[in-house]
Amino acid sequence: QVQLVESGGGLVQAGGSLRLSCAASGRTFSNYAMGWFRQAPGKEREFVAAISRIGGSTYSADSVKGRFTISRDNAKNTLYLQMNSLKPEDTAVYYCAAKGTVRPLSTVVATGSSTGWADFGSWGQGTQVTVSS
What pLDDT sits at residue 1? Predict the structure, then answer.
């Protein structure tokens, strides 16, 4: 499995920006489609965004469209999430994850919530993002 370590979280005022990073090691990073998820206290894990292995296809949750951008640098084995126009409801622990199955990423994004996002087999430890009003 690939090992993942998130960084870049913190406390920011509403309307501000943060960029999260996810450093990968252990396996060939470009072999994995990747995703960002978040979990707020008392709530289920929520899909945020996903990106294909080479970065040609990206997907975002409706709640973050137009504000968050997922990207990757395969030469640096790093996944990013640029978060702009942050809102208090974006407060959560953010996790990056690597998709370990052969199912198409588009299918996984559309149906993954029903399986608890089981297609993503490797997860980081998470980074806290807190947005104050």
Answer: 84
